[in-house]
Specification:
Oligomer: single chain
CATH topology: TIM Barrel
CATH architecture: Alpha-Beta Barrel
Largest sheet: 8 strands, parallel, barrel
Number of helices: 13
Radius of gyration: 17 Å
Order of helices and strands: HEHHEHHEEEHEHEHEHEHEHHH
CATH superfamily: Aldolase class I
Number of strands: 10
Distance between the termini: 43 Å
Strand content: 15-25%
Strand order of the largest sheet: 1-2-3-6-7-8-9-10
Helix content: 40-55%
Shape: globular
Length: 262
Amino acid sequence: MNLKERRLNHIFKPDGKALIVAMDHGTFNGASPGLKHPGETISQIIEGGADAALVNFGVARKFARELAPIGYIARLDLPPTYMGQGHDSRLTYDAEYALRMGADAVMVNVGQGAGVEEITYPHLAEAISYCDRVGLPVCAEPVPGGFDAGPEFKTLDNIARGARIACEIGCDFMKVGFAPGFERIVDETFVPLVVLGGAKTDDEKEFLTSIKTAMDAGAHGVAIGRNVWGGGNTVNMTRALAAIIHKNAEVEEAHEILKAGK
């Protein structure tokens, strides 16, 4: 087992699947509801059965003790804040710093489209080039049109093409959007895919159904934030997702787990 495989095993369980909770929202939105006290949120997702967390370096440094039981993925780039302009992230940290901070993997956004990919594709390639030399896995996050793009950009075709491009550049696994026909994205890629959660939804059963559909189509897990910690039921939402991901639970069973905490 090489160093990269060892680190990936801190994120993906023996079944090859991972429940990753995204907690990196603070760099563009400040103290989001559910993330005001990161240490508490980390403890809650661990109680619920999370395998790893996606965090910024400030959280990783301050809450290292709380994060210790699970894997952690560090973000190498920073997006514009809610007051900023533009929709592309900038590479602001390097892999050496991630290693010093004990990261198991790093995350890089990859915007697709004019005015975006000219910056983000070279960033991804740069990160992969260095991380591969030191055995640090890279997770790419293809974002059709960039962060500010409307739903017309989040088509199955755009997601599938962006995912394949990130594979070709050399990422080790990928955080991607869900769309009906997700099987195509799985079929056209050759690294593990974890599904992002997107904006907070009020229909929890519909949300769980989309995750179940993605898992049945071949996803290797999720990387979800607001729909885990944004609804005031963090522990049980994490448990519900863990049941789908690691136990192949049906939606009704997962929904009952979620309701048990209300």
